[in-house]
Design goal:
Blueprint: H1 2-14, H2 23-31, H3 35-48, H4 56-66, H5 71-84, H6 87-102, H7 108-124, H8 132-140, H9 147-167
Length: about 170
Amino acid sequence: HQKKYVWKMVYIFMLGYEIDFGHEEIVNLCRSKKYSEKNVGYVAMSVLLKDEDITPDIVEVIRKDLFSDYEAVQALALATIANIGGRMLVDAVVTDVQKLAIQEGVRPIARKKASLCLLRMFRVNPKIPMPDAWISEVVALLDDRDLGVVTSVSSLLLGLITAASKNNSFGNL
């Protein structure tokens, strides 16, 4: 019944009413082992929560799911990070998303979403630290066999270069 109540909260929010309750139920759904419950939790989190609503529990759940064995769960966490996109959440998970983008053994769908999530995070906070070694590993991803990975990494690099050219700061690019 918890899924049903969370969907009702989302519906009430879509009707234009403010929702300032039920955050714990959303986090509990995100912690669930069932994908259907986790999906509802992440959709509700993306729609209902703002950056100021982010708690350490939410960051913990997202971090845990970023390194899940299931790419669908990783995709839910990455999409939620990109949708909420506040500075507090970005600062908390940026290193994890950077690792996910370049880590060996990560499936292409998670790598694509991590690259696009990083682009969104960089647009929210252009002062995100980008280590030189990380940039060179991202550039190496342009040789990936998956066209989606190459396209998303190209978008990420283009976004980084565009922002650096506007600020005249080509430090590690």
